[in-house]
Design a protein that fits this description.
Elements: H1 2-14, H2 22-33, H3 42-76, H4 88-101, H5 114-134, H6 141-164, H7 169-179, H8 192-207, H9 209-215, H10 219-224, H11 229-251, H12 257-269, H13 273-297, H14 306-327
Amino acid sequence: MALALVAALSLGVTWGSSDLSVAGVWSVVSRRLAGEPPRPGTDDLIVWQLRVPRALLAALVGAGLGLVGTAVQALVRNPLADPYLLGISSGAAFAAVAATVLGVSGGLLAGVGLSTAAFGGALATFGLVWFFGRRAGGFSSLRLVLAGVGIGQLLGGLTSYLVLQGEDAQQTNGVLFWLMGSLGGATWQDLPAPALAVAASFVVLQWRAHALNAIMLGDETASALGIDGARLRRELFVVTSVLTGVLVAVSGAIGFVGLLVPHVCRMLVGGDHRRLLPASALCGAVLMAVVDLVCRTALSDQELPVGVVTSVLGAPTLLYLINRRLEGGTS
């Protein structure tokens, strides 16, 4: 997977409206990493200022979504769960759009950063979904997913309403495109926040990998193994909400990656989270790097939103998983 990621990033920087040679790309990258000044011409500008930051951001977003999807599926003990289906991404997107549209003219949301607003929206939505998922007594992963879908649709409608209230037509178009997932316009300044969030989340989740294995067996089994299920879930609430908020702030609400990646990795490395978490991060990074390349090169006259491609990949996967669970007699 690491080799595949290097290959995907290389292709992402090489292919585009202006195709460059792999040798030329690596020459520019090696010179800039060595601290040499840029050389005259367009190759340096295209490679270092435009394509490299975008390819790295795609890999970071994919790695983060893979980690979030793995953690959420362990949290709710449901392989059909991911931040998009549970409404977490919708909550983050709603808060980010509110901060953008309403915060422009002052008021309570003025000056609130996108990452901060998206984190608050993700955390609040996750808490609301969890409340409705457990309200009838006991824990039901199916009820949790259904609550997430319902709340996500509600927040999606409210987000659309906020977008329509924007007075700036250019801003409205930009927000609409961002909501479908977009990595366009990525710069080096966009990388530190997601890089820090992904790295910190991976460290925390990998440290709790044994607890994630235990919680998948049920709360009673986890308790017998000395795992505090309530404390673990609180930790996962914060980690997944922070990471989802940061990712939504830089890329919009990208669906199905967190659903697809953990299943692919379980077929490759099994269900042990000590191997599953790093595999999901790498697999997610490869997937998003390839998806972003497809979005940039599939059409000659325009760029596809990232969410369009991930939905085409993820929706059939979701239907297959639902059908397999129904055939197995589970709900």
